[in-house]
Amino acid sequence: MLAHIKHSLGVSARLSILLLAAMVLCKPGLTEERGCKTLTVSGNPEYPPLLWEDSREPGALTGVATALLAEILEPLGVKLEVKSLGSWARVQRHARYGELDMIAGAFITPERTRYMDYLLPPFTQLTVSVWVPKDRVFEYRHWSDLQGKHGGTLINNSFGQEFDSFAQESLDIVGVRTIEQSFEMALAGRVDYVLYERLQGQVKLQRLGLADEFVDLDVPVSTEGLFYTFSKKSPCNTFELRERIADRLYTLLSLGRLDSLISEYTARYMSL
Is 220 exposed, middle or buried (0-12, 13-18, 19+ CB in 10 A)? Predict the structure, then answer.
């Protein structure tokens, strides 16, 4: 806005405007996380070992993503409140309307950047695979090899903007509420393949007793960074808090904490 101020304004007037802008930017709540004692967080409940709904605690999510976030927030004096909101599509709607402070794990898409701020660095990189029943493997080297086939995945799932655009224009992919449905549809021959992250697919299929029924094809669809994100409408979304979280995240990642948590929570999920 200041760039559009006419040059005819006098020095005093311009200084007054700059001072007013500085006062607005320095108002409590815009530059400090005062009053932000609790972060309400949710995420994709179909994402073990990063996130899943704990059957022993209805309405709660557990996993690597929230455990790491809790370790980040503890020394900052911010309490973590994790909620299970149902489907991944519903979680994103809550973030859009400011009914949720943060999402613990999202890929970047242009649509999501309109209502969420992404915290750097990503806390992990995930490879997305094409999963197929072992008795119906087909040749796959490029995205175009999926044309003419029917695919399945979660509703509102993203696998990188480039692939998402290609899929929207050229592929036939049905979105369902749970990834179990997608795998069941593949076994029944209703879809030819399932798009799902490699790590999550390995863990989920083993837990379902279907590890011997599926294979992930050699060439990945994409490899994308997974981020913590703030709803733009969250009152806790301040520059200072984002910076403090990012600093703690970088430190914990440098110490190898993520790998330890993946091992721990994979074992927890498999023991259910």
Answer: middle
pTM (two decimals)? 0.82
Q: Do residues 132 and 215 lie in contact, with contact meaning Cβ atoms separated by under 8 Å?
A: yes
* pLDDT above 80 (res 12): no
In degrees and rounded to multiples of 5, residue 151 shows phi and psi of: -120, 165
| Of the candidates 73, 68, 112, 119, the residue with the CA atom closest to the CA atom of residue 94 | 112
- The single-letter DSSP state of residue 121 is S
Is the bond preceding 121 in cis, omega lying within 30 degrees of 0? Answer: yes
Report residue 197 CA to chain centroid gap.
12
Tell me the three state secondary structure of residue 215: strand
> Looking at residues 133-157, what average pLDDT do you find?
97
CA distance 18 to 13: 9
Q: pLDDT category, 19, cuts 50, 70, 90? A: very low
Q: For residue 30, what pLDDT band results from cuts at 50, 70 and 90? A: very low
Q: Which residue is listed with tokens 């996130």?
A: 51
User: Span 223-244, mean pLDDT?
Assistant: 97
pLDDT at 192 over 50: yes
Among residues 27, 42, 25, which one has the least CA distance to residue 234?
Answer: 42
Q: What is the CA radius of gyration of the chain?
A: 22
Instruction: Look at the block and give the residue holding tokens 């409408």.
Output: 233
- DSSP assignments along 149-172, one per residue: SEEEEETT--S-HHHHHHHHHH-E
Q: Which two tokens stand for residue 42?
A: 């949710």
3-state secondary structure at position 109: coil
Across all residues in the chain, what is the average pLDDT? 88
Between strands 102-106 and 222-231, the pairing is antiparallel
